[in-house]
């Protein structure tokens, strides 16, 4: 299916008869006096070597491999002379055989001389105008004038920060930032692999792209469970104390919410760089033991890539910090250079202490963006992304095998294979506008979840203003309907569920709503309007048995009308109102401003469950045995709505009462997860 050939010295590549023509490569460098010069490929030749096509043009080489659903390319350049101030390695450019209509592109987070795709780099849906151009970090999903969907971008993230360029007339290019480095004659640049990956639609193309990247990065960390927990940051901030942590630990145990981890966020340390407890915390090992004794897994926040200027690390080890190119001054925000062997030893010892000695088995690695410097490292070949990968690999070796690693404000692609979880949205704040802001990257980054890592949409703040006291540093202004939408968003992400409230102040109703999300789903939800919306408003959360969950959002400030459409006639149940809506193949409904609806769609006949009051993403197993019907769910207690044209009665661990025509309410006994009903 993959073909690579030359036509009058010009390089062309095609997959499934979809060609990219006039492929080229180049390296740009600073020529002085504000001039940027280029070393460019010219005449190409192609040979077949095993399963690869090898294309050569002077000092440039591209190796092409067929991949599932597309192709991969590996770029290499051997410098014919010395170069100073290398800017970009243009690893692939060419012309698609059709114009480009739409794209989902990701912006850049820029700090300390680097530009990268991290949690705050927002994905946008772009419509191409005539002579239009779009730049995206890492990769871009695009659809063309012939209705085809593909992803073009980096397939590995180990060497350089990448970006891609697309134009309305089909021009495409991939560039890798070289940070002004030098290269001597005969030295090789080996860039990160790139790819073009197809799908029947945009969502599938992105999922296929994630799978291709996963294989290329040899990721072995994706089997970890989706975590749930409590986090100190969004209630206490840096003013958190050991007493606050223990108060919430015991409140969590009493409330029996069902979370696993307790995360002590920023505020426990002396300074960034000096990772010992401050005056508000005494013994971090003893605290971890108390958390574990209460039935939770201890977690700890740490920012190992940076150092405060008043820290002992900054004072005593200036040689550990990234330097300016032309002198020994500190480059930008103080950033640790892990190409220095002594800094490596420090990092290993720190994480071995946190995980193995103190006993923290969930570690949040934060404040990475500003601490990946484009300056001069001890190893002249080191750069921001290599520094990050090197450090994360050391961290992985230092911690116990069962330690869960969350990357935050980190380069997303470069975290694949070295982090279990990834923050995919900016920080949540107390206002409705903040909820809209985190919804966009959370829902548009769905394709990473359960393939490359577990997505983390940031903490759930379920509290109202009535559930806060003087210790709360972020007073929430969302009303109950907006909080319901927040809960729906966390469900629609499929990702981690971490609560950021003071547990002892939460009302029973709020506790119950938090439990709707637990245990976290292991499914990957898919936006249904990915390529046509700014913020996705309809999400397919997948099936469990015969039941499919669809979540709709109204992100606007006015009421809107939506249509739910399915292939076959099915039972429809809405979660928030707890209403059975009958059977239909489509449903037209309105949503007030800032509201959401969660629909359970059951495509089955006979006696079937159609809804529940205890979960937004039901996990019920429901089986028929003769005239008996048995169900098993991971939660204990709760009520299921069951459709049956035959009268039902309870047999085991439940009660069954008729609540409408052909409808029965099956209430599962407290402490029970298995139940049995039968036809009367």
Which topology of the largest domain does CATH recognise?
TIM Barrel
* Major sheet characteristics: 10 strands, antiparallel
Number of helices: 10
Oligomeric description of these chains: single chain
Spatial extent as radius of gyration: 27 Å
> Can you tell me the overall shape?
globular
Any idea how many domains? 3
CATH level 1 name of the largest domain? Alpha Beta
Strand content: 35-45%
Mean pLDDT, to the nearest integer, reads: 96
Compute the number of strand runs. 44
Structural class: alpha+beta
The unreliable regions are none
What's the end-to-end separation, in Å? Answer: 60 Å
CATH superfamily heading of the largest domain: Aldolase class I
Helix content estimate: 10-25%
Supply the CATH architecture of the largest domain.
Alpha-Beta Barrel
Write the layout of secondary structure elements.
Blueprint: E1 2-7, E2 10-15, E3 18-32, E4 35-40, E5 45-49, E6 52-57, E7 60-67, E8 70-78, E9 86-96, E10 100-106, E11 109-111, E12 114-116, E13 123-127, E14 133-137, E15 139-144, E16 149-154, E17 162-167, E18 171-177, E19 188-190, E20 194-199, H1 202-217, E21 228-231, H2 233-236, H3 242-255, E22 261-264, E23 269-271, E24 274-277, H4 284-293, E25 297-302, H5 312-316, H6 341-357, E26 362-365, H7 384-398, E27 404-407, E28 421-423, H8 432-444, E29 454-456, H9 480-493, E30 497-499, H10 508-515, E31 526-527, E32 538-544, E33 547-553, E34 560-574, E35 579-591, E36 596-602, E37 608-612, E38 621-625, E39 628-632, E40 639-643, E41 648-652, E42 654-660, E43 663-668, E44 674-679
Parallel strand pairs: 21-22, 21-30, 22-25, 25-26, 26-27, 27-28, 28-29
Antiparallel strand pairs: 1-2, 2-3, 3-4, 3-9, 5-6, 6-7, 7-8, 8-19, 8-20, 9-18, 10-13, 10-15, 11-12, 14-17, 15-16, 16-20, 17-18, 23-24, 31-32, 32-33, 33-36, 34-35, 34-36, 37-40, 38-39, 39-44, 40-43, 41-44, 42-43
């Amino acid at each position: 299916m993959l073909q690579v050939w030359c036509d009058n010295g010009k390089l062309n590549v095609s997959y499934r008869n979809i060609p990219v023509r006039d492929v080229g490569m180049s390296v740009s460098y600073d020529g002085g006096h504000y001039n940027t010069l280029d070393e460019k490929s010219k005449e190409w030749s192609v040979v077949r070597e095993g399963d690869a096509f090898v294309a050569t043009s002077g000092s440039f080489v591209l190796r092409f491999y067929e991949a599932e659903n597309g192709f991969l390319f590996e770029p290499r350049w051997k410098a014919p002379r010395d170069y100073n101030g290398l800017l970009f390695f243009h690893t692939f450019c060419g012309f698609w055989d059709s114009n480009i209509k739409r794209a989902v592109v990701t912006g850049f987070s820029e700090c300390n001389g680097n530009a990268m795709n991290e949690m705050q780099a927002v994905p946008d849906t772009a419509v191409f105008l005539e002579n239009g151009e779009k730049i995206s970090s890492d990769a871009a999903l695009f659809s063309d004038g012939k209705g085809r969907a593909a992803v073009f971008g980096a397939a590995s993230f180990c060497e350089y920060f990448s970006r891609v360029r697309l134009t309305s007339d089909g021009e495409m290019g991939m560039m890798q930032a070289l940070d002004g480095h030098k290269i001597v004659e005969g030295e090789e640049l080996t860039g990160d692999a790139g790819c073009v990956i197809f799908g029947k639609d945009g969502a599938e193309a992105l999922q296929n792209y994630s799978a291709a990247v996963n294989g290329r990065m040899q990721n072995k960390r994706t089997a970890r469970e989706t975590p749930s927990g409590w986090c100190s940051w969004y209630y206490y901030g840096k003013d958190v104390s050991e007493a606050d942590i223990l108060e919430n630990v015991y409140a969590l145990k009493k409330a029996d919410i069902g979370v696993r981890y307790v995360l002590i966020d920023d505020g426990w340390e002396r300074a960034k760089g000096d990772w010992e407890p401050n005056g508000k915390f005494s013994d971090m090992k003893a605290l971890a033991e108390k958390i574990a004794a209460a039935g939770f897994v201890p977690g700890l926040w740490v920012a190992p890539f940076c150092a405060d200027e008043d820290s002992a690390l900054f004072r005593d080890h200036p040689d550990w910090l990234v330097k300016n190119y032309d002198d020994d001054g500190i480059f930008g925000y103080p950033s640790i250079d892990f190409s220095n062997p002594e800094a490596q030893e420090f990092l290993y010892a720190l994480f071995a202490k946190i995980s193995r000695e103190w006993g923290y088995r969930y570690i949040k690695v934060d404040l990475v963006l500003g601490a990946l410097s484009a300056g001069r490292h001890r190893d002249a070949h080191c750069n921001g992304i290599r520094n990050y990968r090197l450090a994360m690999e050391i961290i992985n070796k230092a911690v116990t095998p069962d330690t869960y690693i969350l990357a935050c404000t980190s380069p997303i692609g470069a975290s694949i294979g070295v982090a279990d979880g990834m923050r995919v949205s900016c920080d949540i704040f107390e206002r409705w506008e903040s909820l809209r802001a985190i919804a966009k990257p959370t829902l548009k980054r769905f394709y990473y979840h359960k393939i490359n890592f577990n997505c983390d949409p940031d903490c759930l703040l379920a509290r109202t203003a009535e559930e806060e006291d003087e210790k709360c540093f972020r007073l929430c202004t969302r009303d109950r309907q907006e909080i319901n939408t927040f809960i729906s968003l966390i469900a629609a992400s499929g990702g981690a569920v971490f609560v950021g409230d003071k547990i002892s102040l939460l009302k029973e109703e709020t506790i119950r709503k938090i439990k709707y999300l637990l245990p976290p789903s292991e499914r990957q939800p898919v936006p249904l309007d990915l390529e046509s919306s700014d913020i996705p408003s309809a999400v397919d959360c997948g099936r469990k048995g015969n039941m499919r969950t669809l979540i709709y959002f109204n992100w606007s400030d006015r009421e809107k009308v939506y249509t739910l459409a399915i292939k076959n006639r099915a039972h429809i149940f809405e979660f928030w109102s707890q209403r059975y809506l009958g059977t239909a193949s489509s449903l037209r409904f309105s949503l007030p401003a800032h509201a959401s609806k969660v629909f359970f769609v059951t495509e089955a006949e006979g006696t079937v469950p159609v809804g529940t009051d205890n979960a937004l993403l039901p996990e019920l197993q429901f089986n028929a045995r003769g005239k008996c019907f048995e169900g098993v769910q991971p939660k204990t207690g709760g009520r299921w709505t069951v459709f049956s044209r035959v009268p039902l009665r309870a047999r085991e661990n439940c009660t069954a009462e008729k609540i409408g025509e052909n409808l029965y309410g099956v209430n599962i006994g407290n402490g029970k997860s298995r139940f049995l009903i039968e036809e009367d």
